[in-house]
Amino acid sequence: MPDKVLLVDDDRILLFRTQKQSAVFKDRFQLLLAENGRQAVEKLEAETVALVVTDLQMPVMDGFELLSFMSLNYPDIPVIIITAYGTLKSRRNVLQNGAVEFIEKPIEPEALTRKIYANLDEIAEEDAFQSVPLELFSYLIVSEKKTCTLRVVNRNTGMKGVLFFSRGVLMDARLGNRHGREAASEMYAWHRTKYTIQDLCAVAEKKIPGGLQDVLPDLR
C-alpha cells in the first residue's frame, strides 16, 4: 500500500501541480493536501502519514506552530521544510538528524515529488528518526526573524527549559535556576526533545552575546 505524504502550503497552484505530478509515483505514495497548519492537524489526526512537507509562512496556523504540534504529538513523523528563505542553505550539518530536509523555494513540482520519493526510501532504511531537531527549528526561527518563546522538554529526563527569541535573535534561556548561555547550551545538548511555541517574548534585555551562533558555534 502506498505511503501517505502530507503537503502543507498556502500556494494552491503549487498544491494542485504537485498533486498532479505525484501521479507518476502513485504506487509509492499518495499525496494529501492542506493549505495551512490547522488543516494539516486535521489530516494528521485522520490519516496515517509517513512524511510531512510544509511551508513556514502560512495564514491561520503557520509552519512553526505545526512543527511545534508535531514535536508533541507526532515526533516520529519526519518533516521536509520548504521556504522562500535560503539562509539555511549553508547549515547542512543541522539537517543530518533523522530524515529532515530543507528545500529552498521556488521548486518545481517534478523536483519536489522526486525529493519526496527519495526521502521515503531513506526513511524505510532508517531504524529511528525524529521530526525536526531543536537546533534546526531554532535556526528556522533565526532565519525568518520570528519573535517567540520555546518551551523545551527533555524526553529522557522530563527536565524543562525555556528559550526566548526576539525578531530571530536568541535573547535568553532559562533552565531551573540557570540563565543565559549555560542554560541554552545544555538544552541544545539534549538528544531527544519536544517543544511548544508561543508567539511572544517576555525578555527585553539580551543575555546571550552572539545569540544562537554563540551557543552553537559549529553552525556558523
What does this protein structure show overall?
The chain folds into two domains: 123 residues, Response regulator (Rossmann fold, 3-Layer(aba) Sandwich), CATH 3.40.50; 75 residues, no CATH class. It is 33% helix and 25% strand. The strands form two sheets. The protein has a five-stranded parallel beta sheet with strand order 2-1-3-4-5. The protein has a five-stranded antiparallel beta sheet with strand order 9-8-7-6-10. A hairpin with a 2-residue loop joins β8 and β9. α1 crosses α4 and α2 runs parallel beside α3. The radius of gyration is 17 Å and the shape is elongated. 38% of the residues are buried.
How would you briefly describe this protein structure?
The chain contains seven helices and ten strands. With 220 residues, the protein is of the alpha/beta class.
Helix fraction by DSSP (H/I, runs of at least 4): 25-40%
Form type: elongated
Provide the residue-averaged pLDDT: 88
Uncertain runs = none
Strand order of the largest sheet: 2-1-3-4-5
Rg, alpha carbons = 17 Å
CATH topology title of the largest domain: Rossmann fold
Structural features:
220 residues, alpha/beta, Rossmann fold, 2 domains, five-stranded parallel beta sheet, five-stranded antiparallel beta sheet, 7 helices, 33% helix, 25% strand
Helix and strand layout, with pairings?
Layout: E1 3-8, H1 12-21, E2 29-34, H2 37-46, E3 51-54, H3 63-73, E4 79-83, E5 101-104, H4 109-125, H5 134-143, E6 148-154, E7 160-166, E8 169-175, E9 178-179, H6 180-189, E10 193-198, H7 212-215
Parallel strand pairs: 1-2, 1-3, 3-4, 4-5
Antiparallel strand pairs: 6-7, 6-10, 7-8, 8-9
